[in-house]
Design brief:
The protein starts with a helix and ends in a 9-residue tail after the last strand. Strands 1, 4, 5, 6, 7, 8, 9, 10, 11 and 12 form a 10-stranded antiparallel β-sheet that branches. Strands 2-3 form a two-stranded antiparallel ribbon. Helix 1 packs antiparallel against helix 2. A hairpin with a 2-residue loop joins strand 7 and strand 8. By secondary structure, the protein is α+β, with helices and mostly antiparallel strands. The chain has 7 helices and 12 strands.
């Protein structure tokens, strides 16, 4: 039973150690994200005027702060469970030690009756025959060994008990430390929420400015959407023209000329190479690299409420990723640059084709690729732009032919 208890405890400790390591890793990763967001907030705070970008950064900081508290709470519960288990083990060991001591006392008492040589000799030579003499001799020998083992076992249990008592004390100290940390992080969260309320209040007083920005952004979104649709339409037309040329080159085949091919004018007719590229691009779903090295999604895909203006909804054909000023923007996969243009309100824009998929990167301050250029995955295409409010962000879109795709379902977790 003792061995089973030890191995069982070993397995439990290993699982708890793994969970603790996972929590510590999550805590470090989340802390790194908090530090990144803090840098972004510091940049936006260099501008005296409040902005939606600053509000988004504070909102994301609150999300990460809440996550940090959740991690600490989970760790706190783990420590509580461990402390309870240690207390149980300590109580069990203490009980076992008392039982062992009692058994040992009985053995000592019994041994005292035959402690002198005369009693031992009398016990041996009163045997009825030689075989009984041998058995009695072995009994005395085994009894002596049993006492020694019992004494060793008592010492072992006593040592284990002391070790567990030390563990209980250490665990209580860890609990106290985690509790202090949780209180501090909760206070920080309240400060952040207060700052968020102040920014919302100040932005609410700038309704006309926000309405003007919203109208400008809407125009930029429409221009960008039309530009991408024109690129897709152009590539569909080119693919159809290529198909037509291929059909003409096979005009000597009577069967094929009598059976005209049906083309879909809403999708790109791809070559074998383009099909291979599109297939490998589609495999990126859920593990696509981010176009910037750090940052967070400040505006999500689709239609949603404006963060300040009540009753106003906005639409995003991709996602806005807020990052640090001067960060490089990189293409998420190999492809061919189909357009490099500038649109008011969206800065510089780069559109890259990957078979029948397209990725679009806007709000760049400068671009270092050109139309028609073949580029590799992770290659730098430009630098993120920073607006007058001090917000540095890009808009990232993914299209398949004319269909807009939610990039959040494709980007790897961050």
């Amino acid at each position: 039973m003792l061995c089973l208890s030890i191995f069982g405890g070993f397995g439990q400790n290993r699982r708890k150690s793994t969970r603790r390591a996972r929590l510590e890793a999550a805590k470090r990763e989340n802390l790194q994200k908090i530090q990144e967001i803090n840098k972004i907030i510091e940049k936006t705070e260099q501008k005296k005027e409040v902005s939606v970008g600053k509000l988004n950064a504070i909102g994301e900081r609150i999300n990460k702060q809440t996550r940090q508290i959740d991690i600490i709470s989970e760790n706190q519960q783990l420590l509580e469970n461990e402390a309870q288990e240690l207390t149980r083990v300590t109580t069990e060991l203490s009980g076992n030690l008392e039982k062992l001591k009692a058994e040992y006392a009985k053995m000592i008492f019994a041994s005292a009756k035959t402690s002198n040589k005369f009693n031992k000799l009398s016990f041996l030579f009163s045997s009825a025959n030689f075989n009984q003499l041998v058995r009695r001799y072995k009994y005395l020998q085994q009894y002596s060994e049993a006492r020694e083992k019992q004494a060793a076992l008592i010492e072992k249990v006593r040592t284990e008990l002391l070790a567990e008592q030390v563990n209980v004390l250490q665990k209580k100290q860890e609990q106290a430390s985690v509790l202090r940390e949780k209180i501090t992080e909760t206070q920080n969260l309240q400060v952040l929420k207060g700052k968020q309320s102040d920014v919302v209040s100040q932005l609410s007083q700038k309704e006309k400015v926000l309405q003007s920005q919203l109208a400008s952004n809407k125009q930029a979104v429409e221009r960008l959407e039309n530009m991408i649709a024109q690129i897709v339409e152009r590539e569909i037309r080119r693919s159809q023209e290529r198909q037509e040329r291929e059909r003409n080159s096979r005009s000597n085949d009577v069967n094929k000329t009598n059976k005209p091919e049906v083309t879909n004018n809403k999708t790109i007719a791809m070559t074998a190479e383009e099909t291979k590229l599109a297939t490998s691009f589609s495999a990126l779903r859920g593990r696509m690299p981010w176009p910037v090295g750090s940052g967070f999604i400040s505006d999500h895909f689709g239609v949603h409420n404006h963060p300040v203006l009540k009753g106003i909804k906005t639409n995003n054909n991709g996602v806005d990723i807020q990052t640090s000023a001067g960060n490089d923007v990189k293409v998420v996969y190999e492809g061919i640059v189909q357009s490099v243009v500038s649109i008011p309100g969206a800065n510089m824009i780069v559109a890259v084709q990957h078979g029948d998929y397209f990725t679009v990167y806007s709000k760049l301050s400068n671009v270092n690729v050109s139309t028609g250029q073949k580029i590799n995955s992770g290659q730098k295409i430009g630098v993120v732009a920073t607006d007058n409010d001090g917000t540095s962000e890009i808009n990232f879109q993914v299209w398949k032919n004319f269909d807009k795709i939610n990039p959040e379902n494709w980007l790897r977790g961050r």
